[in-house]
Amino acid sequence: MKTFLASCQELAFPSFCLGCQRRLPWRRLPLFCDDCLSGITAISSPRCLCCGAPFATGEDHLCGACLQRDFSFDLARAALAYQPPITGLISALKFQGQLSGLASLAALARASRGFQELSAPDLILPVPLHPQRLRERGYNQALLLARACFPERRALIHPGVLLRHRATVPQTALSGTLRRKNLSGAFSLIQPHMVNNRKILLVDDVFTTGSTVDVCARILSRAGAARVEIFTLAKTF
Ligand SMILES: [Zn+2]
Ligand SMILES: [Zn+2]
């Protein structure tokens, strides 16, 4: 039974579905109505044991790319499929400064299967923005996501370990070869001693081709990281 105070709060500060803006009769996270929530796809099996690429049928196994060890990370997990309403919320978070969906996105992320499969990290590194983009935007969405998804590990989150010192063209606009060219030399490690022999968790908003996190993972592995895992809020298909 609702308390009188909770009812007053609902009247004074009504909550709305982040997907369709319908008024919600509750304030619990995630703030989605049942219809919008049922349209959000949580990523689950069958998928690649390493990079998380989904398969149509069968059991979890390694995909072709991971069998050939194309990636430098040990595990990549994403919480949700990158489709509406998640696409709009991530875009609003990145480009319109709308942070209102962050807590709900983090609640979905923390409830995901992928989140539960992550190892306990020694260090959590958000994928950095180029300093100029950081100045324009005022915040790094990957850092905000890391803080929202791992509040109990906040002391392990270090945004200053990796640096992006070249602005890159959005990866989605490029072919595989151009993507690697676009990213080569774009990142560097400012404090290599911090990653040596440590288990690192890299956090980003979307896993598209994996090229960005892979470049970061390669730098971390070369600096002696014991393990590199990736967690993204969403993954494209
Ligand atoms: Zn809705
Ligand atoms: Zn794979």
Description:
With 237 residues, this protein is α/β, with parallel strands linked by helices. It folds into two domains: 1-39, no CATH class; 43-235, no CATH class. Helices cover 32% and strands 16% of the residues. It is built from ten helices and eight strands. It has a four-stranded parallel β-sheet with strand order 3-8-7-4. A two-stranded antiparallel sheet has the order 1-2. A two-stranded antiparallel ribbon has the order 5-6. Strand 1 (15-16) and strand 2 (23-24) form a beta hairpin. The chain is globular. The protein starts with a helix and ends with a strand.
Biggest sheet, in brief? 4 strands, parallel
Task: Report helical residue fraction.
Answer: 25-40%
Low-confidence stretches: none
Ligands bound to this protein structure: zinc ion
- Rg for CA atoms: 19 Å
- Give the overall pLDDT as a whole number: 90
User: Beta fraction of the residues?
Assistant: 15-25%
